[in-house]
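User: Fold this; tokens only.

Assistant: Input:
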Amino acid sequence: MEVWWRGSGKRQGSSILGAVGLLTYRFSLADRAVVTDFNTGIPSVRRLQKVIKDRETLEVKLNTGDVFVGQLRWQDPDCLCLADAEGRESLLWRSAIAFIKVRPQS
């Protein structure tokens, strides 16, 4: 994985440094590069990274009223991957999420 900075486009070594400073990850998948914006500096992203690290249980309610409960496996700019108690994973689009609640650990 390479880390790039998006902005003025001035190259310095293998990275691009710019005024905007949005962190962009560059992934190589089947010889194709996909570039996505993912701002790891915002509190919500950092909090969800802590949820992953601490293996906390989440309750995620969608705009449709459906509720998913499980552990967050990973997140990207578009989706969250939530695994239920039986290990089944669900991809939840961020645009479909009404709220996320961290359940107290028992």
